[in-house]
Write the structure tokens for this entry.
Amino acid sequence: MKFQPFRLIPVWGRSKEQEDVGQKQKFSFRNFSAMFALGSFLGLAIATTTSNSENATAAYPIAANFSNVTLRASKFKGGWDLQLKLAGQDKFPYKTEFTEFTGGNFIVQAINANAIDIGSASEIPPIFAVQSQGAVKIIASIKGPTVGQVVLVPKNSKAKKFTDLKGKKVGYVKATTAHYFLIKMLAQEGLTLKDVNAVPLTIPDGLSAFRRGDLDAWATYGYAIQQAQKDGAKVLKSAKNILSGNFTIVAAPSAIADPNKKAAIADFLCRIQKSQDWQASNIEAWSKNYAKAIGVDETFVLKDAKEGLKQRRSQLLPISQQAIASQQDVADTFYRAGVIPTKVDVKPLWDGSFTNAINKCK
């Protein structure tokens, strides 16, 4: 696979086929050098909402001046903002702005461009930040289920096993878990990306292409799976036992360097941790609201949520040697596959300055 510099391209407008993945909003960044060096910026999304509660009690008691702090956080559709609201953790003592994205790769780009302060991503997008010397730090990890990571085929597909995809058109999302587990699944059958017609697509474009019948298979994740299943899509192979379940919390070095914003981030992390505990204990209520937010049948969401909870409940954790080693293994996989041109040392990405705050969160 040819290694190319990353370029920003304006976000496209909303189309009828993209209704299910939300309304797009143009999001302008200053020019910056290659973030992932894997292709063009095809879409980052969608809507921004603001919340402020000046007299609220912080979820994590920190002596800080929040009067002039605005914490700019990422979210996925039906993500952090909804989860925090449902858990009663949305009364922030500082201003918050949530911007919606369709992938962790775009979130890391936005942090590098100083457009947001904190977000979440899999282990993979930060690897490409190292490769392009981007400004991003991993401040915590979330150990969670991996059931929402699959390769889908259309309802009328004749593919029964992964080798049936040889020579076929397979969509995937660059610089994400979908990119990684597609490589691993192919390797398990003695194949590489060169053995299929691998097509890099954003989630919205991938869903549209899949629905049009332009793809023989689609490596994807998250709510797009339920969207496709509404049309009868079938799971050819799950990445449940391929992925580590480690997801990262990423932050801008400039936000960490600001004492008041750093205190806000510590408080925000604690609220995320509490909202995860609420979600695990209120899975039906969460599923109902999440299904409404993404526009799919609650039955699909609840089934996946229960399966994920059976595997493991999500838990926010401080950085650890195990998490660093896991990400290093992923980076080495990309290097061996020729996706990145040089070996990457991920250790400098990790910032342990929030460890005490996470451990003290009750």
In short: The first helix runs from residue 80 to 86. The chain has a mean pLDDT of 84. The CA atoms of residues 12 and 157 lie 30 Å apart.
